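Can anyone check this?
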Amino acid sequence: MQSRLVELAGSAATFAFLLNGSMIYLGQGLGIVIGAAAFARWGLASAPASGLTMTFPASRLRCFWRSPVPASCRLRKSDHARLRP
């Protein structure tokens, strides 16, 4: 994933890494806040439901923001064979 980020960002790779790391921490922080609020209000039984309420909308947003993958970033059949464990 990181190598693809570098390829797509080009000369702005450092900024792309910065933004990528920031979004990871933002997601973790939001998850903790929402999970803690649900736990405080409804108890431990609300943990799965609060996780799903965040996961489903996030997965739908990814579908809307999907951009076509450039040909240079697509895996070839030879890459698949090389990447298998």
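Reply from J.R.: I decoded it. The helical segments are 2-9, 13-42, 47-64, 77-83.
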